[in-house]
Amino acid sequence: MFNRTSLGSVACAVALLATAQIAAGGAGVARENGRFDADLSLPSGGQQQEGETPTTCLVFDDQTYGAGGTIATTSDLSPQFTSADLFQFNSFGTVPQLQWVGYYRAFNNPGFSVCDEPLPPDNFTVRILGALNGLPDEDNVLFEITQAGNPELFASEVQGLMIGERVLMLYTLTFPEPFVIDTLEPMFLNVVNESLPVGPCRWFWRTAPPGDSQSWSDDLSDGTGWDDADLNDFDLAYCFTFLPGGEEIFPPRVTLDRVGPADVDTGCCQFRYNVRNRNAPGAGNDISEFYIEFNKGTGAAECEGIENITPPVGFQVETCEDWADGKVVYRFFGGDLQPQASTFGQIRIAVNGEEPVTVMIRNSESGEIEEQFIAANGVRAWASQSDGAGLCGNGEFGPGVGQQGDWSLGQDGLCALQPIPAMASVTRAALFGAIIVGGLLVLRSRSLAVVHAG
To answer: What number of other Cβ atoms are within 10 A of residue 213's Cβ?
Structure first.
């Protein structure tokens, strides 16, 4: 369930974390460009109309929200605006369905009007992003699906309530597989349309009754990404169908961040690998032993010694499956990683060549065989909590087809190679040590775990 209103098995995305100070330039910014629909004076009170199950957590009313009296905010790529809202669960479970509310409106610069028929066709992209420093993290995409690629999973209907001339629409996404809630950390829901504009029409995401009174609306044309200037003082209307319970033991998740500089001579790159215990809080769910497979594709046979990997604090490391076909499995042991906690270490590893390499992976969570890729100039990593039956050294333990173990979804680490000036080997070694100890420059690389169909 959410840390907020919950009706039965449905969690309403309205209330959230503690309200934060609204940054300058938030909800009132750029109303003249039509980002915010706030041109209608509405009564201070109104009748709340609840939808039928499973949408009872969406409150349909005729109110405006935020200091500016906002009805909705644009989230449409036609005018290059996208919006997101923060949510957080306080127990594990699965989400089979998502619903949200919005409408089309013509912006006439200034002022708004009814969109001429026919309305633009819907072309939604729905993403769930991790959070980084309180903002949507584009390098941590937990889920992504497009209506263009999966039209059978999207539906829309007239909700029935009008606000002025606005006809509210209820949109539904049925997840191809229930989205697994395996973290109690904050996440962001990003829903954006890419409608083919019919004149000045654009799609607006309806505001919602106050929860934490925060959402974000980014002007993609300014190139700054998500920042504090995108903060709004209102919530957005959406609803997850949440089924509590389910698995409490998950394979740990590993992500990769590049730590510069890279070495063009050897093709080796320095990464920080981050490991998170996804298990539910409770006795016996801590991790004292875990495994990571690194796959460098066609990367050079360089930096393969175990001295090139530094384990997380409190852990030791040894080789489980030695280098073969561009991949290795390391065993980490002797530490203690509590449920929902994270730790990190570093590895120096050669990266794949200029062309992506296809690998066939057995998805432990769905049981299906997936085609995944080792990115150009990158590596990919998977993690497991145990080897099942002491399979290390037999070539049978790993995420690949025909191998064994319960492995997390793969995550990418990307490396743009840069030459290191010529220097004595001892100086290079000193630089390597400085990177490990100092952390130097950390660059986030896109880590994509896409759940999709088609």
So the answer is: 22
